[in-house]
Design brief:
There is one protein chain. By secondary structure, the protein is an alpha+beta fold. The protein has two domains: 3-63, Arc Repressor Mutant, subunit A, CATH 1.10.10; 75-155, 3-Layer(aba) Sandwich (Glutaredoxin), CATH 3.40.30. The chain is 47% helix and 11% strand. The protein has seven helices and four strands, in the order H-H-H-H-E-H-H-E-E-E-H. The protein has helices at residues 3-16, 24-35, 40-50, 54-63, 83-87, 90-101, 143-155, and strands spanning 75-80, 114-119, 131-133, 136-138. Strands 2-1-3-4 form a four-stranded mixed sheet, covered by helices on one side. Strand 3 and strand 4 (136-138) form a beta hairpin. The two termini are 18 Å apart. The structure holds FE2/S2 (inorganic) cluster (FES). FE2/S2 (inorganic) cluster (FES) binds at residues 80, 82-85, 121-125, 128, 130.
C-alpha cells in the first residue's frame, strides 16, 4: 500500500467507526510498515488522522512492544521476558544473544540485521525459553539452536515485513 492508500483507507475506517480511537494501533502499525518504524512524522500523522494529541499517541506507541519508535534492523528479535521463560533460563539466552550479536538490549547490530528487544509473554510458554522474530516463534532456545537460527537468517534472508 502507498502512503496515500493507507491514509485513504484509515480515514474511511475512522469515519465509519463508532469509536474512532479503536483504530489507533492499526494506524500506527500500518504507518510503521510503510516507514520501517513509527517515525515522528508518522506519529503526528496518526494523531492528525484520529484527532488525538501527539502525546496521547506517544503514550500508546511506547506501551506496545511491537510499535518501534526508533529504526530497527531487518529482523527484530523479541526475547520473551515472561515468568515461565525466566524459569527456563531466559536470562542466559538473552545474554547469549546480546554477546553473540555484540549489542545491548534495544540496540541494532552494526550491519543493520538484528534488533533485540525484551517482550512480555509471547504465548509460547510450553516451548520456553522463547523468542519471536518477524512474526515467527522459536523455542525452546539454547545456544546451539540460536546460532543455527541466526545463521539461517543471515544466509537465507526471508520476509522482511515487520509483523506483530
Ligand atoms: S513466558 Fe515466555 S512465552 Fe510465555
Amino acid at each position: 500500500m502507498t502512503l496515500e492508500e493507507i491514509l485513504e483507507t484509515y480515514s474511511r475506517r475512522i469515519q465509519e467507526s463508532e469509536h474512532p480511537r479503536e483504530q489507533v494501533v492499526d494506524v500506527m502499525y500500518a504507518l510503521q510498515k510503510q516507514y520501517g518504524y513509527l517515525s515522528d512524522d508518522a506519529l503526528h500523522l496518526t494523531a492528525e488522522l484520529l484527532g488525538m494529541t501527539p502525546l496521547e499517541v506517544e503514550e500508546l506507541a511506547t506501551f506496545y512492544d511491537f510499535i518501534y519508535r526508533k529504526p530497527v534492523g531487518r529482523y527484530v528479535i523479541h526475547i520473551c521476558d515472561g515468568v515461565v521463560c525466566w524459569m527456563f533460563q531466559e536470562n542466559s539466552v538473552f545474554a547469549y544473544l546480546c554477546k553473540t550479536l555484540e549489542v545491548e538490549p534495544g540496540e541494532t547490530t552494526a550491519d543493520g540485521m538484528f534488533t533485540i528487544l525484551p517482550s512480555a509473554c509471547l504465548g509460547y510458554c510450553d516451548r520456553a525459553p522463547a523468542m519471536l522474530i518477524n512474526g515467527r516463534l522459536y523455542g525452546p532456545l539454547d545456544p546451539g539452536n540460536i546460532d543455527e537460527i541466526l545463521h539461517t537468517l543471515r544466509t537465507e534472508p526471508g520476509e522482511t515485513v515487520i509483523d506483530r
